[in-house]
Every structure is written in structure tokens, then in C-alpha cells.
Design a protein that fits this description.
Elements: H1 19-41, E1 49-57, E2 81-90, E3 98-105, E4 110-115, E5 124-130, E6 133-139, H2 141-151, H3 167-179, E7 184-195, E8 204-213, E9 216-233, E10 238-251, E11 259-265, E12 271-273, H4 277-294, H5 304-307
Antiparallel strand pairs: 1-2, 1-7, 2-3, 3-4, 4-5, 5-6, 7-8, 8-9, 9-10, 10-11, 11-12
Length: 308
């Protein structure tokens, strides 16, 4: 594929979008949605990571009745709470997920505490920001379980939560917050894919992230890994990681700004590339390869005309 790091280095680019480019842009957006749907329903290709971020306003929980852990005393006033955000990151279905709890008050106090999916008894840790100052917080696991239990109304079949990072309890918490408390949910899925070498294309490695809000598409990221190598600098005695990638982000809240291309390289600031027909064609090829990969037919090719 054409190297996006070199495409615009020595030439002026006309930022005006031709009518043809607008048509290709529209087709690209539709193709990306088709790709996202195919990935989401695939039984053979599963996400490496799934993240659920749930936001609940305090009028939907018993905010004034919350009994906060002692670590929050003098930092967070439960009567001033206005938003609770719970974030889960799942790897394998049987693994304990990462959990983060964020509390926001009407007077701009913010507390964030979290724990990786490790030992049940490990405490949760984080910080609170109050009047511009940072305070460290550590909360025992049983106190965190009690706090989550108060937030999740009703509790799980009337049984108090004992471990909000238990995979089964975590999924029940998500369901209850969405169904009973109308929580807004952003769901993100990361797919790591390798398209094998074919007669027409070299091997390609992709990282695809699908983001939805309350079930509706919000954003799709397609990252093509151009280089991901490790070397060793004998002079300084340290390993060197070189990573180069082209990221295409498709957003669905503003169609006129729906695709953004970014060139990324280790040790450098990401560079936004001009949105032109060549990059759109590269993206279309990538989407076509991913679609055929999901369909278990990597040697077949797909054109936009065949897709719609």
C-alpha cells in the first residue's frame, strides 16, 4: 500500500472535496457500517477487549441515601452527587474484568477509583480532586462492593453484591443499570485481525475498534499496522519499539467530518493527514479485506460497486 507518511511530504494538497470524493466518502461510511455489523455478529472472530462505560444520573439511584466509604469523607458529599460512571473492561469471558468507578458532584468534586481484574481481596485505589487539589484514595474490596450494591438498584435478586468483578455479577450489574436505571452505555470492542498474503495483497495487520452509544453506531476506528518491530540499541543497552500505523476514524455524529486519517509513529506526535481520494481508496481496500476475512474468504476481493 502507499505509505501515508510520504504521500503529502513534498506536494500541496487541494483541500476541496470533489463530488466524486463525496460519493466515495458516503460509500466508505456505509461499507464501514457493514463491516462493523459483520464483526459484531461473527462467531469465529471475537473481540480481544470489550469495554462497557455506563453513566447513571443520581436521580435514578438513591443518591441521598448513599453511604460512602470512609475514604471519601470530607472529599465527596453524597447529597451533591449528580453523575456516577462505571467502566468495565473484559478480556476473555471467564476472566475477571477491570473495574473503574467515577463519581462527579454538582460542585465539581471528582473521585475515580479502580482495580485490575486481580485478587478478590486487593483494595481499590484512585484519587479525588477537590478545590483543585489531588487526594489519594484506597478503598477495601468489601467497601467497594457495598458501594456498588447501593448504586445498583434493585440489587441482584435481592442478594447483596460481594464481588463486582466476578464476571457473572459484573454482567448482571451492567444489565440492571441499563434496563432498570436507564443508564447511557458506550460499548467499545477491539478486534485484532491479520489478513494473510494473497495474490493481490501483502499480509496486513489491523486493529478495529467499534464504539456504540445505547446500541447506535458512534465511531469506528480502523488502524492499519505498517510496522511493529522490536530492536536493541547496543550503545545504550535498551530495547527499541518501532510502531507505525495509519488510523482511520469514522464518526457518525457529523457526516461532513465523518472520516479522519492520522499517521502515527513511535516517538512522534500523531499527524492528521489531508482527507483525499487516495486515502479513501486505501481505506476501502482495507474494509473490503476485513469483510472477506470475516467471511472466511481472504483470497476473494470485493469492490464498492458489489457492496451496495
Amino acid at each position: 500500500m502507499t505509505d501515508p507518511f510520504e504521500m503529502f511530504s513534498d506536494e500541496e494538497h487541494d483541500h476541496s472535496t470533489s463530488e466524486k470524493e463525496q460519493v466515495v466518502l458516503a460509500e466508505t461510511v456505509l461499507a464501514s457500517l457493514r463491516m462493523a455489523e459483520a464483526l459484531s455478529r461473527s462467531h469465529d472472530i471475537v473481540p480481544t477487549v470489550k469495554q462497557y462505560q455506563l453513566a447513571v444520573t443520581t436521580d435514578r439511584i438513591h443518591a441521598h441515601d448513599l453511604s460512602l466509604p470512609p475514604s471519601f469523607f470530607d472529599l465527596i458529599d453524597s447529597t451533591m452527587l449528580h453523575l456516577v460512571i462505571i467502566t468495565y473492561n473484559f478480556g476473555s469471558p471467564q476472566d475477571r474484568p477491570y473495574l473503574e468507578l467515577r463519581l462527579e458532584t454538582k460542585d465539581n468534586a471528582i473521585a475515580t477509583i479502580s482495580k485490575p481484574g486481580i485478587d478478590v481481596d486487593e483494595p481499590y485505589s484512585g484519587s479525588a480532586i477537590l478545590n483543585g487539589k489531588d487526594y489519594s484514595i484506597q478503598i477495601p474490596a468489601e467497601e467497594m462492593a457495598d458501594l456498588i450494591d447501593q448504586i445498583v438498584v434493585p440489587s441482584l435478586d435481592g442478594i447483596p453484591l460481594t464481588d463486582p468483578q466476578n464476571p457473572s455479577q459484573a454482567r448482571n450489574i451492567i444489565d440492571i443499570l441499563v434496563q432498570s436505571q436507564q443508564a447511557d452505555m458506550i460499548e467499545s470492542q477491539l478486534f485484532e485481525l491479520t489478513a494473510p498474503k494473497t495474490d493481490e495483497y501483502d499480509e496486513a495487520i489491523y486493529e478495529v475498534r467499534l464504539h456504540t452509544i445505547n446500541g447506535e453506531p458512534m465511531e469506528i476506528e480502523i488502524e492499519t499496522i505498517l510496522d511493529n518491530t522490536m530492536s536493541f540499541d547496543v550503545g545504550v543497552g535498551i530495547p527499541i519499539h518501532r510502531r507505525r500505523a495509519l488510523n482511520a476514524t469514522l464518526s457518525f455524529d457529523d457526516f461532513s467530518q465523518s472520516v479522519t486519517f492520522t499517521a502515527m509513529e513511535s516517538g512522534k506526535e500523531p499527524e492528521t493527514l489531508p482527507n483525499d481520494s487516495e486515502l479513501l481508496n486505501i481505506l476501502n481496500e482495507d474494509i473490503g479485506r476485513i469483510l472477506k476475512l470475516v467471511d472466511n474468504d481472504p483470497n476473494d476481493t470485493i469492490s464498492l460497486d458489489e457492496s451496495f
